[in-house]
Amino acid sequence: MAKAYWVATYRSVTDPDKLAAYAKLSGPAINAAGGRILARGLPSQVYELGLEQRTVLIEFDSVEQARAAHDSSAYQEALALLEGGAERDIRIIEGI
Questions:
Q1: Model confidence over 24-63: pLDDT tens digits?
Q2: Considering the domain 4-94 in this protein, what is its CATH number?
Q3: DSSP state of 68
Q4: CA distance 1 to 57
């Protein structure tokens, strides 16, 4: 079974306090669901049409595990704290 990667890119953060509250709960929720945060922060370098956006890369053992982590009550509780504080995009992609 291929690993899966959850890629979150933040287009904007309008309320850093909401982001901090989200981060306090989301990390433990993701870890409890089997996720491993591999990288997070602003890019060290961007190329082509890359944007200077906060990005988070999380590894899971499968796409199903990544979906379950996102849909879990613990993660949804964290996500509710972020509402209105950031505009972002989350993608789950399967490893090769």
A1: 999 999 999 999 999 999 999 999 988 899 999 999 999 9
A2: 3.30.70.100
A3: H
A4: 19
